[in-house]
Specification:
The complex is a heterodimer of chains A (251) and B (328).
Chain A (H helix, E strand, L loop, with lengths): L2 H23 L8 H27 L5 H7 L9 H4 L5 H22 L5 H28 L4 H19 L8 H6 L6 H16 L27 H8 L12
Chain B lengths: L20 H12 L12 H26 L8 H26 L5 H10 L15 H22 L5 H29 L3 H20 L12 H5 L7 H18 L10 E2 L6 E2 L5 H11 L3 H14 L1 H8 L11
Antiparallel strand pairs in B: 1-2
Helix pairs in contact in B: 2-3, 3-6, 4-11, 5-6, 5-7, 5-9, 6-7
Classes of the chains: A mainly alpha (251), B mainly alpha (328).
Chain lengths: 251, 328
């Protein structure tokens, strides 16, 4: 087994879940209605929990313990796509991001349930069962707000246009993409992207929204290789503020 | 989480003058027999009004209470704490949701309750007008403020209004986990490194006065309403709740090597009652009336959330939008 290729795959997925989970948790107390505070908190807990499990697999492969990996790295050592680190913005942006990301995640973890690396395949089976509900949540809200009022449609469309190039960055190929596919670890980002686009269109077609024009379809890459927006380092500084007061202490 | 110190409606001597005396007697007899009053049952207007006010204040306290702790979710040290704190604060918001529903059964909508919160017309627990400066403050809240809330809420769950009692039973079950989580955090800080111990002691020093205020003014000075006790709206006196809290938690705080900033605090071996420096009730009144360290900030945050979310709520009501089938 090509351990380096496996680690590459695990790191980007774990980092995605951690950072978006963190962003989702920022909605606690601020949602447009209490039910949404609660829903975003549930998704945050799932995502942070999933990242923890993925870091545990990395730990078994010789990487540091999950707390150290999550709380002690700098932004340039993170492999998440830039989509997940962007600030929450208004509810329309958070919702569109959630929809675009979780549509991809459900397909990703369904595919990973057949991974040649058994610990990952087992975990993926569990994760896809959780993400199924995230996708249902996103679909319901997109369908509702995407065809409700002039304002809601306009807001969603604007956020859709902004988020879409970043969402394409989810599928930035890994430097070990070929090894990952050849080893049967994962069927690859290209295949995932095609399936994702079909699923996204399926829901968007049921609303008054339209897929962003071709000019807005240049993917924002870099995240998988440690290049990030200015939003990630402050997020990490906040996340590790207490932990770094004494990383050796038991909190 | 919620303590005592409810702000009840001022009662006029004539408040019951318009009620049908036969129905009123029947209503009181039911309460005496320990029966629960349900939403469609007859009840005096005054009972309805006082309950709405109390449950509403409780619901507001839950969602405002999510703010000081919520700010520590993004900074919680390590996966275990991060996940637990998220779940804990989510519970508090859920309690708000549950309680607004209980209050709605009495005829006031959630929207109008939230409007009254933002406008400052209705109150919430005073303790959340103090800032949570450090991680240790959030641990103090999770353990001891929740412990205080349990004392008050267990008493109120034996009250007379069915929907409120049932909500409280579930809330108390969840709060008991919060208390375990908070205690676990405090133990780690109080028995940890020098820096952690100092952080925890500083939090106890900061939060002790608000904690003593939490149960409301002393019975000696609070306007007592015999009728609210008789109708089982108010179940335990402020002083009784405070004594119960001190009895249960002061030994546990001392056990961890922490000190409490009150040299008069001791249990009188003869009376079995705790003695302490009389809390500053003028400060309590000042803070509850809007002049605390965080009143403005808390309400501003709530107001922004309400305003930013308005278009979403409007879009949910859009008559033309197609009905979306709920989750499978």
């Amino acid at each position: 087994m090509n351990t380096e290729a496996l680690k590459d795959l695990l790191y980007k997925m774990a980092d995605d879940q951690l950072i978006l989970g963190h962003r989702n948790s920022e909605w606690t107390g601020f949602g447009p209605l209490l039910e949404e505070d609660i829903a975003f908190s549930s998704m945050a807990q799932d995502k942070v929990g999933q990242s923890w499990q993925l870091y545990k697999i990395l730990n078994d492969l010789g990487e540091s313990d999950p707390d150290t990996v999550a709380f002690m790295r700098n932004a340039d050592q993170f492999h998440n796509c830039q989509l997940v680190e962007l600030p929450n913005g208004e509810y329309d942006f958070s919702l569109i991001r959630h929809f675009l990301f979780d549509t991809a995640e459900l397909i990703r973890f369904t595919m990973l349930a057949n991974s040649s690396y058994e610990p990952l395949a087992l975990l993926a089976k569990k994760i896809k069962g959780e993400i199924k509900y995230h996708k249902m949540h996103a679909d319901i809200w997109i369908k509702q707000l995407g065809s409700a009022t002039e304002e809601s449609i306009e807001r969603l469309q604007e956020s859709f246009n902004i988020a879409f190039p970043y969402a394409l960055g989810i599928f930035e190929p890994s430097q070990m993409e070929e090894e990952i596919i050849n080893e049967g670890l994962f069927e690859g980002e290209e295949k995932l992207k095609a399936a994702w686009l079909a699923k996204v269109s399926e829901i968007i077609d049921k609303t008054s929204l339209t897929l962003p024009e071709a000019s807005l379809q240049t993917p924002v890459y870099g995240g998988r290789y440690g290049t990030h927006t200015d939003n990630l380092q402050p997020l990490l500084d906040e996340m590790s503020e207490v932990f770094k007061m004494d990383p050796a202490a038991d909190w | 989480m919620y303590g005592g110190g409810n702000v009840f409606e001022t009662m006029k001597a004539t408040a019951l003058g318009d009620e049908d005396p036969v129905k009123l007697a029947e209503f009181e007899a039911r309460i005496d027999r320990g029966e629960k009053i349900e939403p469609t049952d007859w009840m005096p207007q005054l009972y309805r009004k006082q309950l709405i006010r109390m449950i509403e204040q409780h619901a507001h306290s839950e969602i405002i209470g999510a703010l000081p702790e919520g700010t520590w979710i993004t900074r919680a040290p390590g996966f275990k704490r991060k996940l637990a704190l998220m779940a804990k604060v989510q519970d508090e918001v859920g309690h708000g949701q549950l309680l607004y529903s209980a209050a709605e059964t009495l005829g006031k909508s959630r929207e109008s309750m939230l409007d009254d919160l933002v406008s400052g017309k209705s109150k919430y627990s005073n303790i959340f007008n103090y800032p949570a400066f450090t991680w240790a403050d959030s641990c103090f809240i999770s353990w001891l403020v929740d412990a205080g809330a349990i004392v008050n809420q267990v008493a109120n769950s034996k009250g007379s209004y069915g929907p409120y009692c049932r909500a409280l039973e579930r809330i108390c079950a969840e709060e008991s986990f919060h208390l375990k989580y908070g205690h676990h955090c405090v133990i780690h800080l109080a028995t940890g490194t020098k820096k952690q111990r100092e952080m925890m002691q500083a939090a106890v020093n900061r939060w002790w006065a608000p904690m003593m205020h939490f149960f409301g003014p002393s019975d000696k000075i609070s306007v007592h309403s015999e009728i609210l006790m008789r109708w089982k709206v108010k179940m335990a006196s402020n002083d009784a709740c405070r004594q119960q809290f001190l009895d249960m938690y002061v030994p546990k705080i001392w056990e961890l090597g922490l000190t409490i900033p009150d040299d008069k605090l001791q249990k009188n071996p003869e009376t079995g009652e705790w003695e302490f420096t009389e809390p500053d009730w003028d400060e309590f009144k000042r803070v509850i009336n809007g002049d605390g360290p965080c009143n403005k900030e808390r309400l501003a945050v709530r107001k922004i959330a309400e305003e930013r979310g308005r278009w979403v709520r409007k879009a949910l009501l859009a008559p033309k939008s197609k009905y979306v089938t709920p989750l499978a």
